[in-house]
C-alpha cells in the first residue's frame, strides 16, 4: 500500500505568503497585493477572489484597476521614461545587476509562489526563475555592443503576457527593455503569477528601475496599455484572438510592436526508423502539461510507419508523471519530480475534456487515455484542474483540436500518405513558432524543411524559444511585429538609423534576420 502523502513542511501557501510579506512589505498587505505605479505601491483596485490550480484553495487575487487609473499609471510611466532614458548605460547596468542579485537571493520563494499560482512542478518553477536571471545577466554583459548607435524609444514599453512563464518571459523582457533605456509597464496575467510578479517587481523597483505593474481586465485596460499615445512599444504574448485585436490597434496607430501568438506546432514523421530517439523525447514534450508556446501537440505520421510510431509513442506517454507538486510521503523527502501538475485552472481542464469528447463523437479515435494516480495526490484534495495525457487519432476538421493549439496534455495524430499531405498537415495553422521533422535522409529533410511554415525547425529534435543570442519569431499569424532574441530584442525596443527596417512580420513587409 502506497504511503499517504502530505504537504512538505514549509511549502504551504500560508508559508509563501508570510515570507512574501517579510521580503517586500511595501508591496503586500495582510490579505492582498498592491499595484505599482507612479513610483510607489498603491492600495487601489478592486481585488477579486482567486484559487490555486494545485488544490483549489484561495490565493491572492488581482487588484483590478479601472481604465482611468490605468491611464494615470501610463502617464506617470512616461514621466519616468523621460528621466530614465538619459541615465548612463553603466548606471543602468549596475542597477539591473543589483536587481538580478536580489532575484537570485529570493529564488526559492519566487519559485514556490509559481508552484501555487500556476501549478508548475518545483524543478520547472525554479528553471523559470533561473532562465530569467541568467538570460538578463547575458544581456548585461553584451548590452554595449547591442545598443551601440541606438537610443531608447520615445515612450515606455507596455507588456501584456500570458501566465505560463512570468519570470523567464515577462520579467526577462522587462529587465532587458529597462537595460536598453526604457521605462516599462506590465499588466499582471489574469490567470496566475500575481504574487510572484509582485515580489519580483518590488525587488526590481528597490534598485531604482522604472517598472510599473498593474492588474486589470485586458479589455478594460487595452485603451491605456495599447492605444495610449504615451506608449512607445507594445509587447504581447498570448492567443491569436487577443493578439489580432492588439495588432489592429497598433497598426492603425503606427506603433512599434512585438506580438507573439499561438500556432499549431507540429512534429512530422516521414521515412523514419530511429524510434528509440522518439521514445526518449516524448516525455520531455509534456513539460508543464504542454502549456507552453513551443509545445508539440500534433504528430503528422506517415501511414506505413504508424505501427512503429505507436510502439515507440505509447510506452513513453504512459510513463508521464502528474500529481500534486508539493506532496511528499515523508517530511524530509525531496519534492516530487513530475512532468506536470495541474493545468492553469479547472475551467481549462474541463474545456479540453469537453473538446476531446466532442472530437471523439465526431469520429476521432482515442488511442491513449491516461488516468490520475490517487497515490500522487493528497487525500481528499480538489483535483479538478488536473488532466491526464490523452491522445486522439484523426481529429475531425470541425474540432478546435484540429487547427488550434490545445495548451494542455492532449496530442492529436494525423496520418498522411504523400509528402504533399505531410506538408499540408504540418502547416495546418498557417504558420507556427516551431516544428520538427523526423526523417532518416538528410536530403529529404533539406528538401522539405523550407516548405514547413515554422520559424524554428528541428531535425528529429524539439526546438524551444531559446535563450540569450538565439533568435525567436514566428511565421504567419503566429507572430506580428519585430522578432526578438539576442540583439534583436534590444533593437526591437530602441531606435536606430532613420529608415531602419527591423526583422519581423509587419503589415508592409516581412524581413527575416
TrEMBL record:
Pfam families, from UniProt? Aldedh
SUPFAM superfamilies from the UniProt entry? ALDH-like
Gene3D superfamilies (UniProt xref): Aldehyde Dehydrogenase, Chain A, domain 1, Aldehyde Dehydrogenase, Chain A, domain 2
Q: Look up keyword Heme and say if it applies.
A: no
- Chain residue ranges for the region called Disordered: 45-68
Show where the Aldehyde dehydrogenase domain sits.
44-488
Q: Could you tell me which InterPro entries the record lists for this protein?
A: Ald_DH/histidinol_DH (IPR016161), Ald_DH_C (IPR016163), Ald_DH_N (IPR016162), Aldehyde_DH_dom (IPR015590)
Q: Which UniProt keywords apply?
A: Oxidoreductase
This one is known as Aldehyde dehydrogenase
Species this chain originates from: Streptomyces nojiriensis
Amino acid at each position: 500500500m502506497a504511503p499517504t502523502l502530505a504537504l512538505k513542511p514549509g511549502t504551504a501557501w500560508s508559508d509563501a505568503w508570510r515570507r512574501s510579506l517579510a521580503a517586500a512589505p511595501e508591496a503586500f498587505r495582510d490579505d492582498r497585493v498592491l499595484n505599482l505605479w507612479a513610483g510607489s505601491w498603491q492600495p487601489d483596485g478592486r481585488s477579486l477572489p482567486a484559487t490555486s490550480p494545485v488544490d483549489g484553495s484561495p490565493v491572492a487575487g488581482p487588484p483590478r484597476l479601472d481604465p482611468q487609473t490605468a491611464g494615470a499609471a501610463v502617464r506617470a510611466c512616461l514621466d519616468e521614461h523621460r528621466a530614465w532614458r538619459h541615465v548612463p548605460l553603466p548606471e543602468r547596468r549596475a542597477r539591473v545587476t543589483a536587481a538580478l542579485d536580489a532575484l537570485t537571493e529570493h529564488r526559492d520563494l519566487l519559485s514556490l509562489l509559481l508552484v501555487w499560482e500556476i501549478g508548475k512542478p518545483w524543478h520547472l518553477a525554479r528553471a523559470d526563475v533561473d532562465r530569467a536571471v541568467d538570460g538578463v545577466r547575458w544581456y548585461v554583459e553584451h548590452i554595449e555592443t547591442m545598443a551601440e548607435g541606438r537610443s531608447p524609444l520615445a515612450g515606455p514599453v507596455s507588456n501584456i503576457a500570458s501566465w505560463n512563464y512570468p519570470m523567464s518571459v515577462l520579467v526577462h523582457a522587462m529587465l532587458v527593455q529597462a537595460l536598453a533605456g526604457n521605462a516599462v509597464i506590465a499588466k499582471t496575467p489574469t490567470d496566475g503569477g500575481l504574487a510572484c510578479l509582485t515580489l519580483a517587481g518590488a525587488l526590481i523597483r528597490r534598485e531604482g528601475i522604472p517598472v510599473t505593474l498593474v492588474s486589470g481586465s485586458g479589455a478594460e485596460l487595452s485603451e491605456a496599455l495599447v492605444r495610449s499615445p504615451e506608449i512607445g512599444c507594445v509587447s504581447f504574448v498570448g492567443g491569436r484572438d487577443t493578439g489580432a485585436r492588439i495588432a489592429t490597434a497598433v497598426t492603425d496607430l503606427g506603433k512599434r510592436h512585438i506580438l507573439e501568438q499561438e500556432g499549431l506546432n507540429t512534429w512530422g514523421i516521414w521515412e523514419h526508423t530511429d524510434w528509440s530517439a522518439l521514445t526518449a523525447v516524448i516525455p520531455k514534450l509534456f513539460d508543464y502539461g504542454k502549456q507552453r508556446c513551443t509545445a508539440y501537440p500534433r504528430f503528422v505520421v506517415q501511414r506505413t510507419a504508424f505501427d512503429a510510431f505507436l510502439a515507440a509513442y505509447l510506452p513513453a506517454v504512459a510513463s508521464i508523471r502528474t500529481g500534486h507538486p508539493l506532496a511528499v510521503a515523508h517530511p524530509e523527502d525531496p519534492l516530487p519530480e513530475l512532468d506536470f501538475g495541474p493545468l492553469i485552472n479547472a475551467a481549462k481542464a474541463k474545456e479540453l475534456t469537453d473538446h476531446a469528447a466532442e472530437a471523439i463523437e465526431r469520429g476521432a479515435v482515442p488511442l491513449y487515455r491516461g488516468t490520475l494516480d490517487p497515490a500522487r495526490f493528497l487525500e481528499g484534495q480538489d483535483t479538478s484542474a488536473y488532466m491526464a495525457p490523452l491522445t486522439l487519432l484523426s481529429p475531425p476538421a470541425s474540432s478546435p483540436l484540429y487547427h488550434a493549439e490545445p495548451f494542455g496534455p492532449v496530442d492529436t495524430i494525423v496520418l498522411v500518405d504523400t509528402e504533399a499531405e505531410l506538408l499540408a498537415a504540418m502547416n495546418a495553422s498557417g504558420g507556427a513558432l516551431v516544428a520538427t521533422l523526423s526523417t532518416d535522409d538528410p536530403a529529404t529533410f533539406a528538401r522539405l524543411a523550407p516548405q514547413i511554415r515554422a520559424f524554428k525547425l528541428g531535425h528529429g529534435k524539439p526546438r524551444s524559444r531559446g535563450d540569450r543570442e538565439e533568435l525567436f519569431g514566428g511565421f504567419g499569424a503566429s507572430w506580428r511585429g519585430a522578432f526578438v532574441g539576442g540583439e534583436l530584442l534590444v533593437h526591437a525596443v530602441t531606435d536606430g538609423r532613420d529608415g531602419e527596417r527591423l526583422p519581423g512580420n509587419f503589415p508592409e513587409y516581412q524581413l527575416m534576420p
